[in-house]
Structure formats: structure tokens, C-alpha cells
Amino acid sequence: MFTPTDKEKKAFIERTKAQRQQRQAERLEKVRLTKQENAARIAQRWWLRHICKRQATHDCWNAWDTMVKHDAQTLDDGFRIAGIYCLLSRHHPSESRKRLGDMCKCLTKKFKHNLSTKQQLTYYALLVDSRYNVQALKYLCVILNQCLASVCESSVDAHNQLQMYLTGTELSTLLQFLNPKTYQQTNRFLDDPQYRLPDPAYALTSAARTVFDECLLKFNIRDPAIVRVQRIVKLEHKSAKYSAGVLSPEDGKMVRAIQLWLTTLTRLCLFPIEFFSNSSSSGTIERRRRQAIQFICTNILAVPLLPTMINSMMANHLMKLVGIADVYAEITNKNQADRTMIEIMLSGNGCIFLLGNLIHIAQQLQQQDISLIVTMTNILIETAQTYFSERQISPYIHYHPLFKWSSSTWGDSIDTLVFEKVQHSQIEYLWSRTFMGQVFSDVLTFDTGDNGGGGYASTVSAKGKSGTGGIKSRLLFKKKQQQDQISAIDGKQYSQLAEFSMDIEAIFSMYMTLSSLFATQSKEIVNKIAFTPRLMPKLWKLMNTFGPRGQMIIYLDAARRPRQKPEDDIEKEPLIKMLKVFCEACSLVFLTLDDNDIFEDEHPFSVQDLIKLGSFLNTFYFALLQHQSQDKSISSTTVSSNATSTATMPPLPSSVRSFRAAHRLLLQIYDLDVRHPYCPTDHWLLVSDPSMTKSALLTLFNSSKTPAVQPFLDRLRQGDPVPLRILQLMPHTVPFKTRLTVFRDWVALDRANLMVTSSRALRVRRQNVLEDGYRGLGGLPPSSWKGNIRVKFVNELGVEEAGIDQGGPFKDFVSLLVEEVFKPSVGLFSATSTNNMCYPASTSYIQGPRHIELFEFIGKVIGKAVYEGILLDVQFASFFLAKLLGRNVFLEELREMDEDVWRNLVFLKRYDGSLEDLGLYFATDEEAFGTVTSHELKYRGRNIAVTNDNKVEYIYRMADYKLNQQTREQTRAFIQGFRTVISESWIRVFSPTELQRVISGDDTDFDVTDLRQHTTYQNGYFDHHPIIRTLWQIVEEFSSDEKRAFLKFVTSCPKPPLGGFDYLQPPFTIRMVAVDPETTQGNDGLGLMKTLFKVGNAGGAKTGRLPSSSTCFNLLKLPAYTKKSLLREKLIYAINSNTGFELS
Prior knowledge:
47 helices, 19 strands, three-stranded antiparallel sheet, four-stranded mixed sheet, HECT-type E3 ubiquitin transferase, EC 2.3.2.26, elongated, single chain
């Protein structure tokens, strides 16, 4: 308890504390009020000063306005006006912008020297006045920079309309004070020697140089010019889209105003180069001239389409002052710092725009240095290519309207229309017929002597003079006949040949880079090269002269050279790009050739040249396949596993991937030989037999290497990637029997590794095989197609037929299904008119909306049959088999499909008159079931007439439509289904004709002795049974058609299996059955004994049971006829009736 004294003490403490806190709060409040009062005073003083300053500024501007408007102005007044303006504009740019026009008028007017004299002077007089020259020059630079900023201004108003400065006094001021000629007039000088500089002419020249350095050469003209060019392109596009290219009056006025602005700015930018070009030559002047050219390149020529937007007089002046050689010298400057600076300023888009404008300038020039254009194009395109990518990866993070992704520092936001117009109207000139005729003129005039079997250049003459049609001709080749040898070339001639070859290599390097950068135009570029008249055969002859030994030896040596390191890339080999483009273009040419071109006209290559070309490509690509892959991420174990289990190739070496076109061309020449043999026997084989060793393979390329001897097949089974590559990419170099063995090994290995153990049961009515088969197997997972599929046939009552399925009923099911689906009445497949080969029908839609799924199902069934080794009695068209193998088919294959269309296209190709008279367009009409449907061969093809210039394209597109596009969906579905069971890599080892043999067997009469050796017997028959001996005698005596009918009767296929009847599964079996039809087959032992010992009614045999078969088991049920004539009669009747089960 507190005492009274304690309570009073506590109250006192609390009261004192409260008072202290109150005093503290009062002090803080007083400080706050003081600070607030001080802040208010400061703000008030600032505001008063601001008001005073604004008023003073306003008064100054008013005074300035009065001074400017005063009529009688002296030179001193002009200096003060400029000085006050520069002072005020530094702090009040918005006010100065309003008065810039007045300042410009004042600057360009004439002043009096003083009020007492009548001498008229201009502002230039201040530049030679010792009192004012320094400040007057500074004022002039400030005003000119403001003029440039105003002239180049662009803004967007409230209505989203682009507002651009197009004309005004600022532009006139720039034209006057940036013109170097105005600094050279003597009437600019002061008459008063007291203040005039000692050398006024030099002072004015120095002033002009300073104006250029401090104003124009530092300013960015490019961006505002691009804005205005973009506006013109959009207006022109709008007029082309909505008013047939006619501009509205308002738009026309705008376009003309922008063109005038662009012309004026171009004129301004040319002043520095005029000034420095006319100055006395010295190191400094030359450096400044190059600086001016650099400015032109980065600010004028880097503006897209600018030479096409300015008037012709200014464009000619531009071409006169800045030649292509000047630009070339600048971009190939030896000074690395200067060259790097230009590349940085141009960036990727600038290189493209600069190239486009230079190409436009080159078009306007009558004398063109094609070599210079090619070299410059290579430099700019290769530089630009480093800024673009098709994938969005760092540093390519900005979307580009033409090249997808970009790392350029500027230009990516320019409208797509501008890029497209640059490409179409400027850069595409590089692959125009006009330019290609010039750039390839030396190749087309190249001549060689036909030295026996070689056909190579033999003699090199002195260097020729440069011409206007193409690259400087350095060589003239004289004809000189020599047998089987090449004449020696001395050092000087060889040097000239090497120089010439490098020039040609530069051309093809240019086109390769253009194809890579302009990916959408790649086909067009290669097409133009391919169909330049006489270019391909001339290029082939030219390449055969390269190197000391000629005959393409330098390319074979390049292919044989080991590639262990990334820097050993074959792309770095000399003259290799020429070969790559040749292969690309030549493969395109072969798509449009027919047999008449090649074997009758021998155009574009003679048969001998084709043999040599095929031999070279065969050896060259075979050598490339020997290279080791540089992908270290894949272990040898993985490679071995892939090679042996799935026949999937490991990653290919970069050299192989780089020459896909060479591989494509090689296969085209090989397929031509398969279709129309013209090469010597075994011309293509490089692996002579299955025991060919790898050492023997390598001795083809380098006899110094002798690795351990191991058989080709053994190395393949061990996972060596080289034999696998050969089988997959060059199967024609390996004998067919070897490849067939490999294929069967792959299938057997896949079957052994198969994890599926379950089987699928299927009930099928013989009259509804397709319907029941699709219903039962259509939804089967892909993995289950390689498993067991057990088939039970049921009759009309739904009762299953007797028998045990050991694979035979499935074979019968497949045979019946194939027989049904390939009937023309079904409508799924069509047949060629000449040889009844099958291919998907374009009218398959009559089967309903699921007809595409039917093709996939049929593809799976055919694939399953090949997987199981079941031979099918179906013949596919060779062009369809080629597509099954993943190959392209074109004109010559069309002959098999529709000979009438092929003949018409060949007629067009050879037609010498005007094709426009025929009234053809890039469209074709198809009639089906009374309805005519039109199909365009290209975009808006109905409106594109076929002319002599585009007839090759029309032929190409028509053949492509007929062979590839018309049944694209059906073919794709069939191939997808087939590859569900049979891997594409497995069948890639075959040619189309060989694949047909795999599907349906050899198209020859079977060997009776081979069939007899692989026949099994049941129910008492044996090989030397009299009836069996009689049977084989009869079969030996059969005609070819009867043998085929017999084989089809017992196996459902008229062709023998590949490799002989050892591969027939199940084996061919002959079972004895009773002759008497009343005897129960197979159950009456007495009847069989009578049959065995020929006991019974001979007369009953004549009316007895006919031979019958179970094709599902390759089983012949043969009654024991007592006479050979009767056996022959019954057998021939049975096989020709072709009704199988029902005859017995």
C-alpha cells in the first residue's frame, strides 16, 4: 500500500513529465512552422525570379522579334540577332522552334556594312571578320543543327496520322549554308582590311569544313528518310490494292512532296563529297573524302529504295559522285577499325539496303564491272547473314519481317512491305536472266578440246581483255586433240586458270549465300542457274580442267582427305562451292529431262559425259561416307545398338550432310541407268561381294592404309557406321543379294527383339475381306502389327472353317485382301494404261469420308506381308514405289502414269513457236464422274499465262501435280501405314524395281529343280514316288504362263521368292488325297492305300477329284492319277480355273 506521501510524489512526477512533453511538442511545432515559413519564402522568391526571368525572356524574345523585323539591319545587327537567338534557344527550345524560320530568313538576307554605306554583305562576311568569326561560326553551327533537326522531324498527331516536315525556309537555309560553292565567292569578303582576316578564302574553306564536321556529318539522316520511304511504299501498296495502282490526288501530292524532300536531303548529303573531292589532294583530304563516302553509305545508300525515290537527275549525280568502286573500297578498307565501324553502323539491315541500292545503281550503268559487283555482294551478304537466324536464340531475339529473327541494331521494325519491295525490285536482279547472262558469260564461252575420252581443256592462252558482258575473261582455250592424256600447262597458264577458277567460285559462293539468306527464294535462284542455257554442260567441262591433273581429281582428293577436326570442314576446300551449286542445279535439270533429251538429242549432256559424271559422283560420295562423324556425344555402344537393331544411321559427318544434292543427283543418274541401261556392267558396284573387306574399300581411296581384314557383313553386324551408311545412302554400290541378306537380318533381329507376346484374333468372311479386315485391324496399335494375327474364316452362316491357324490363314487373308482392294471397280487404286501397274486413285473419295484411313490400313497390310515374307500378286507403278522409298519423281515417271499428258508436256518443251498462242495457263482441269474441277498449279495460276520464258516451270509444276500433288493424301497415308511395320531405313537399301521384287518376288520363271529340292510330302508321297516324278516332268514341260499359273495356284503368287524356294514360308508341300470324290479325304486309310498302290477303278479317276490347293499353307492336294496324260489334264484344268478350295 502507498502512503499518502508516495501518492503525492507519483502525481508530481507524472505532472512534470506531461509538462516536459508539452514543451517538447511546442518546440517541434515552432521548428516546423519556421521551416514551413522559410520554404514558403524560398518558393516565393523562386517563383518571383521565375516570373521575372520568364518576363525577361519574353521581353528578350520581343526585343529579338523587333530586331528581326527591322528593315535596316547592319552586319553587326545580324551577328547580335544570331547571338541572342542561340543564347535564348539554348534554354527555351520550344520558343526557338517557333522563331527558327525567322532566324533562317535573317541568316540568308543581305546586310549593310553600316548605315552610312550601301555595301551589301551576307552572313559569310562575319566568318572572315577577325572580331566575330569564331562566335559567328558557332552560331551558324547551332542554327544549322536546329534546321537539320526540324527538317528531319516526324511526329504522330492526335488522329494517329504521321506528320512530317517536307518543305520550308529551314530547308532553303541548309541548301545555302551546306553548299561548299557558297563559301568560295569573293563578294563575301569584307572591304575593310582592318578587320578582314589575312587569308579570307582559307577562312571560308575552314568554316565549310567545320560546318560539315559539326553539323551534317554528325547527323542521322537515315532514320527520318526511312520513315518517309516507308510512307511512300504504303501509299503505293494501298493504291495497287484498291485502285489499280492509281494514287488519289491527296496521296499523289504527298508522294511527290516526300520525293522532293528525299531529293533535297540527298543533295545535302552529297555536298561534303563534292567539297572534299575538289580540294587539293593530301592525306587529310583523302581521309575526309573517305569519311564523306562512309557518310553516304550509312545515311543515304543505307536507306531502302532511296535511289528509286529521288528524281533521275539527282540519282545520276549520286552515281557520278559515289561509284560502286568507291563503296567497294570503303567496305574493304584495310583499316580494321574503319571497316568495323561501317559494319556496326550498317548492321544487318543496312547491308541489305546498301546492297539493294548498289544493285539498282549497277542496273542504271551501261558499263558494269561484274566482278566488282560479285565481290561486293559476297562481302555484304556474308556480313548481313551473321545478323539473322531462323531460330530465336541469343543474340537473335528481335523478330524480323523477312528473316524471322535478328540481332541488328536498327531496322527490324521497318514495315514488311519495304523489305519485300527491296527484295523484289532490287536484290532479285542478281538472279535475273539479264544479270546471269552477264555473270556467266565467261563460263558459257569457255571452250575445251575433246582429247579422246577426256573432253577436258588442253591449252591455255594468254589473258584476254575485260569485256562488258561478264567477269574479265582471263583465258581463251584452244582446241587440241590428244588421245587419253592431258597436255601440260605451264606455270603462267596454270596461274591464269587458277585465277579464273577463283572468279567463278566467287560467283557460286554469292548464289549459295543468297540462297541461304533468302530461303524463300532458294528454289528460284537454283532454278535460274539450272536453266541458264548451256550452263550445266559448260560448267562440267570447266570443272574438269581444274587442278594440275584435271578430271575432277581435286574434288576426289578433297573427299578422300581425312576430317578429324571441325576446322577440316570440306566447305573450306577450294572451289567446293562451285561443285555444290552444280549438283543442286543439275539435279533440278534432270527432273525435266526425258529419254529423248538424253539418249537421242544428248542434251544437255552426252551419254559419255553422263557415264563420267555418274562415275565421279559415285566415287566422290562413297569417299565422303568414309569420314568419321565429329559428334562425340554418341558412344560406340549406342552406334552399334542402332546399327544392328533398327538399321538407323548414326549422325552423318558434316561433309556428307553438306552434299545432299550430290547424293540426289547421283541417284537420279543411277535411276536413269536402271530405267534405260547405258552404263557398262557393274559400273556402279564398289563392293564386289559380301566378303569385301573394309581394307579393300579403303584402298579405293588411300592405298597406304591397310587395316585389319574383316568381311563387310561382319563389320555391319558389329555396328560399324561406314557399311551402314553405304547401305542406306549408296545401296547400288553393294550387290542386291547382299542387301537382301541384310534386309532379312534386320527383320529377323527386329522379330527377335519384339516384346509383344499377345496375338490378335480376326474373324473374316471370304466375301467381305476388306470390310471385316478393316473393322478388326483398323484400330490395332502400331506395335501389334508385328505380332501374331490369327485369322479365322467363316462362311455365310457364321460358322468357322475347320483348320488350325499356323500362319496360313493370315497369308490367305492377305492374298484375298490384295486381290480385292486392287480391283479397278473398288476405286481405291488406278492402273497404268500400258502395263497395269497400280497406284493410288485420285477418285478414292467414292469409298466415303474414311478412304484415307483405308489407304493407311492397306499400307499396314502390305508392310505386314513383307515383314512375314509373304509374296503378293500385285505390281506397283515404279513412281509409286519411288515415293515409298522417299524419292522424288517427276517428268519421265509421268510417262508411266499418263503417256498422253507426258507427250503433251514434251511437245511443249520442244515447241519453238510462241506458247502464248496456245492459250495455256498455270491451271489444269480434271473430270471425274461428269464433274469438271479446276486446279491451280501455283498461286493465282488461272491468271498466269504459259509463255516461252516460264514453260519449263509449267512442265515442272504439271508433272509435280500429276505425280505428287493429285494423290498426296492417299500416298502419304499408304506410306505411313507401310512404315508402321517396315522401317524406312530397311527398304532404303533397295531401288524401286528391287522393292517390287521384295514385295512380289522375281519376275521370272521359277527353277523347277529348286522347288523340288525344297518340297515336303505328306500321306505317302515321297520324292521318287512315280506320281511325283510324273508331276515334276509335267511341270518341267509347262510353258512360262503355265508355270506362273501353277505357282499362283499353290502359293497365291505367280512369282518365286527372292533367293529361291528356301525362303518360301511355309515350305511347299504335296499331300496325297484319294482320287474318288466319295472318299473322305485324309480319313480313309484304305482309300489312301489303294491310291498309293494304284489299286482301284481307273475309269473313276477320269471323273474323280481335281487337284486342289491351300494357298495359305502352300499346299497342293494331289490325287494319285494313274496316267500322265490324265494328271496333266486335271492339273492344267485346275490351275487355269484358279478356284482353289472349291475344286476338290
